[in-house]
Design a protein that fits this description.
Blueprint: H1 33-42, E1 47-68, E2 73-75, E3 80-81, E4 88-93, H2 98-109, E5 137-139, E6 144-163, E7 166-176, E8 181-186, H3 197-206
Antiparallel strand pairs: 1-3, 1-6, 2-5, 4-7, 6-7, 6-8
Length: 215
């Protein structure tokens, strides 16, 4: 079971990335319909270059420290949203289909991604949509304050798409590998050495100053 939190302010809704798409040429001038079709056909077998790729766990939902007695069930049901991320693709130049771009990024990272049309049955465009039955529960090993939460494996990257020796499209992709990393931990315990950014942020926001979990 994960214990855990990233840098965000509780109750602040964060919009990650702006969704946008243009269908102009490299200089921003719009193509005619025939030229767009020719470009799309010519670029069917183009190559992607991925730049500034980042992948990090970000806290999306949290219930701050709540007291439980030893033996009580601690659950992530009912955690509250503290940050929201939206899947988005912005392009400059020839517009490429969102799924096509995300599938190419998924191949580059060798992992499934939200929006690739394959990985997630409930393919919501935002991190706040719960999957049915997606919660975690554990028994409190000792009396004390426990934090529960949820985190997403956020992925961002810039891309260039080259066809016929020239860049015909470029832009930015925001998505995630999974949305339901469940977080449950006691504020009285020190964080695990391998605690990720989402877990450490949960500790910063959900525990009190001086609690071992914030060390």
């Amino acid at each position: 079971m994960k214990r855990g939190l990233t840098t965000a302010i509780a109750a602040l809704v964060i919009a990650a990335g702006a969704t946008g798409c243009t269908s102009g040429g490299e200089d921003g001038a719009p193509h005619g319909g025939a030229q767009r079709l020719a470009t799309a056909k010519a670029c069917a077998d183009g190559t992607y270059t991925w730049l500034n790729v980042s992948r990090r766990m970000v806290l999306t939902d949290l219930t701050a420290g709540t007291h439980y007695a030893k033996g009580d069930k601690v659950s992530t049901k009912g955690v509250k949203e503290v940050a929201r991320y939206t899947r988005s693709v912005s392009t400059s130049g020839a517009a490429l289909p969102e799924k096509r771009l995300i599938r190419a990024l998924a191949r580059h990272l060798k992992t499934g991604l939200a929006g690739d049309g394959v990985t997630m049955a409930d393919d919501s465009p935002r991190t706040t949509k719960y999957e049915k039955g997606a919660f975690a529960e554990q028994t409190a090993e000792a009396s004390g304050r426990y934090v529960t939460g949820r985190a997403a494996d956020l992925v961002e990257a810039d891309y260039r798409y080259v066809c016929g020796g020239r860049t015909v499209s470029s832009g930015h992709v925001v998505t995630w590998a999974h949305v339901n990393e469940m977080i449950i931990f006691s504020c009285g315990d020190k964080p695990a050495k391998n605690a990720d950014e989402g877990e450490r942020e949960a500790a910063r926001l959900g525990c009190r100053e001086g609690d071992p979990a914030r060390s």
